[in-house]
Fold:
Amino acid sequence: MLGNSYWAEQGVPILAHVDAAHQIEERGNRILEGMRGYNRDKAEGTFVALPKETFEDCRDIEMGDLTVEILHLGPAHGPGDTQVWLPAQSLVIAGDMAFHQRMLPIFEDTSVYDWIKNWENGFEALNATYVIPGHGTPTNMAQVRRYTRDYLVYMREKVGEHLENGGDLAEAYYVDQSPYGHLDTFEELATRNAGRVYERMEFE
Structure:
């Protein structure tokens, strides 16, 4: 979202899912101020640029012989996640539906349950040969499945066991995530992710 200002200055119309557009309007300035607090140099010159166009389920774009399908497969990392699917190339630009090489962050508005469901019912069904994830180098479906869907399933299983054993939130922060300890941002995100999964599952 914070990259929108660059494209707006180039005159490129910005397209977003309606839920993403709502979030940008509601939270964009707060997110930008947070970025300025810890990443001032990279935030210089950035401003919140609202989308000029929105869509709900999908939007097809024809560019000569190239067909581009803009998809919203349901909430995942956030409510308005968007994927770009090039069927003829069997290539998906996944956005933050898929992570690779770094640990994914679970935010306050992230529904892990919906992320897994929409992965299995929508994203995996694309059967893409090539995947450009939201974070990490271009790869394939097996790799992003391992570090996104499988991690989310693992976390629900670990936190579920913790809840069944009567564990509280303070202990939930330290459920075993060692299989993913090699990922970039593990130290920053692992305990926070566990706490947020616990808070959601506690009331399911």
User: Anything to note?
Assistant: Helices lie at 4-9, 18-38, 40-43, 112-123, 141-164, 169-172, 186-201. The chain has two domains: 1-55, 57-201.
